[in-house]
Design goal:
CATH topology of the largest domain: Aminopeptidase
Distance between the termini: 36 Å
Low-confidence stretches: none
Bound molecules: ligand BES, manganese (II) ion, zinc ion
Strand content: 15-25%
Structural class: alpha/beta
Number of domains: 2
Number of helices: 14
Radius of gyration: 24 Å
Number of strands: 21
Mean pLDDT: 97
Largest sheet: 9 strands, mixed
Helix content: 25-40%
Shape: elongated
């Protein structure tokens, strides 16, 4: 599973034609334009690439690959051509698509290592560190496999190491930094993906707590796990009401990365950890219900981000809060119309037991106050409505502070893990009115992701807060079904930016 153990990444300074490797990867633009590295290899091979292109065999379509085995004149065993698409359209997405395709093409051969000469391509507004980081991350993303639950593991790949190739040593420091960042962030992504992909009968609240304990041990993080009785003492009636219908006891994980001085206020990340969401008594329909094992993706991404910042030794204090529970329709489950008292003292009428994410988050958000945070960011597969609004491309972003929203949007852009801001206007709050309690846990069909955020906003008045609805971005459905690890890149980037400016 965790990919870092399978393939590792580093930089290598060498001329493309002279580099000793099992596979040298060079890019070709469409139609038939050689990158500098391809040009160098072409010259050394007395036109092996040009000949191929002239015959029309490799037009350079984005992501297409072609392997030349042992061409005379280069030190590498294989030359792997990767199509870059039209030069005018070559941007961040195309760059990442090419790196991913190249890594997959190499992995299909018997090559044990490869050198990718892609970081020297021009990508508008992106520097060498970015290109090195994203070569690593796109390659790792493509090579990720989840076979933990297969009785027969697929054959191990020969590929053990990928180098980000540089023809000249000039900016090797920047590339090294980018590779190191890419490795750390990718390890966080891989953890989040593994946790998301595990089935609900394995990945329970107790399992999440155990994995958090292991993470704390491996990376020197502080940890506390609050048990049901602790939550009872704290008056977390909303969180507890969700767990009541399940045999699995709830957990509240508190993980601490102490990278800055004790007086420096922490960032608090809160991740929704519903390890399976049946909907409870407001039961979900059967179709695709298996995908509700991904309903702990927010929790997975918080643990993954802590993993990444710990590896980077980020000079910031970061606290991960993971409220974890299973939403089941048991005999003790909450019923529509039940009224519970949250830790904040506010009472909530549970009109729909399937709107459970906000119920576990609200108590965790109140708990977050005790840390006197610089900012609190919660991450949750919160609403189907967010998938309708933004699809599977952008994460929904809500914030009670515009500067914080802007920083997160910018971090998403830098990390290529993008978000889009949605309104959190007062006007939407009235949809949550309840005749019986302080407010209800649902606001009707219109703007469902906005009213969910409005619900949370009633618990976050004490600090700067943002909410990321990752219902559309945390996993893919269909034939490539699986966790994406988002928004580990966005969160890590945000923390890097803030730590850098502190
Ligand atoms: N975990 C779901 C949200 C979800 C649904 C994410 C589908 C991704 C795909 C959440 O707990 C939920 O059930 N939300 C309800 C809220 C509604 C009852 C107000 C929803 O979106 O339908
Ligand atoms: Mn639900
Ligand atoms: Zn849910």
């Amino acid at each position: 599973m965790a990919l870092e153990r399978l393939v590792d990444f580093s930089t290598k300074v060498s001329a493309p034609a002279k580099v000793k490797t099992a596979a040298v990867v060079v890019g070709v633009f469409e139609p038939r334009r050689l990158s500098a590295a391809a040009e160098a290899v072409d010259r050394a091979t007395r036109g092996a690439i040009r000949t191929l292109l002239q015959r029309g065999d490799f037009p350079g379509k984005l992501g297409a690959t072609r392997i030349l085995f042992r061409p005379r004149g280069v030190a590498a065993e294989r030359v792997v051509l990767v199509g870059l698409g039209k030069e005018a359209d070559f941007g961040a997405k195309a760059y990442r698509d090419a790196a991913r395709a190249a890594a997959l093409a190499v992995a299909d051969t018997g090559a044990a290592d490869a050198v990718l000469y892609l970081a020297e391509l021009h990508v508008a507004d992106r520097d060498l560190a970015w290109k090195a980081r994203h070569a690593v991350m796109a390659a790792a993303e493509g090579l990720y496999r989840f076979d933990e639950m297969k009785s027969k593991k697929p054959e191990a790949r020969a590929l053990k190491r990928i180098h980000v190739g540089l023809a000249a040593a000039g900016h090797a420091d920047d590339a090294n930094r980018g590779v190191a960042e890419g490795r750390a962030i990718d390890a966080g992504i891989a953890l989040a993906r593994d946790l998301g992909n595990l089935p609900g009968n394995v990945c329970t609240p107790a399992y999440l707590a155990d994995r958090a304990r292991a993470l704390a041990k491996d990376w020197g993080l502080g940890i506390d796990v609050l048990e049901q009785k602790d939550m009872e003492k704290l008056g977390m009636g909303a969180l507890l009401s969700v767990a009541k219908g399940s045999r699995q006891p709830p957990k509240l994980v508190v993980l601490r990365h102490e990278g800055a001085g004790r007086r420096e206020k922490p960032f608090v990340l809160v991740g929704k950890g519903i390890t399976f969401d049946t909907g409870g008594i407001s039961l979900k329909p059967a179709a695709e219900m298996d995908e509700m094992k991904f309903d702990m993706s927010g929790a997975g991404s918080v643990l993954g981000t802590l993993r990444a910042v710990a590896e980077m030794k980020l000079p910031a204090n970061v606290i991960g809060l993971v409220p974890a529970a299973e939403n089941m329709p048991g005999g003790a489950a909450s019923k529509p119309g039940d009224i519970v008292t949250s830790m904040s003292g506010q009472t909530i009428e549970i009109l729909n037991t399937d709107a459970e994410g906000r119920l576990i988050l609200c108590d965790a958000l109140t708990y977050a106050e005790r840390f006197h945070p610089q900012a609190v960011i919660d991450v949750a597969t919160l609403t189907g409505a967010c998938v309708i609004a933004l699809g599977h491309v952008a994460t929904g972003l809500f914030a009670n502070k515009d500067d914080l929203a802007r920083e997160l949007l910018e971090a998403g852009e830098q990390a290529w893990d993008r978000a889009w801001q949605m309104p959190l206007w007062e006007d939407y709050q009235e949809q949550l009115k309840s005749p019986f309690a302080d407010f209800a846990n649902i606001g009707g069909r219109p703007a469902g992701s906005v009213t969910a955020a409005c619900f949370l906003s009633r618990f976050t008045k004490a600090y700067d807060w943002a909410h990321l609805d990752i219902a559309g971005t945390a996993w893919r459905s269909g034939k490539d079904k699986g966790s994406t690890g988002r928004p580990v890149p966005l969160l890590t980037q945000f923390l890097m930016n803030r730590a850098g400016s502190a």
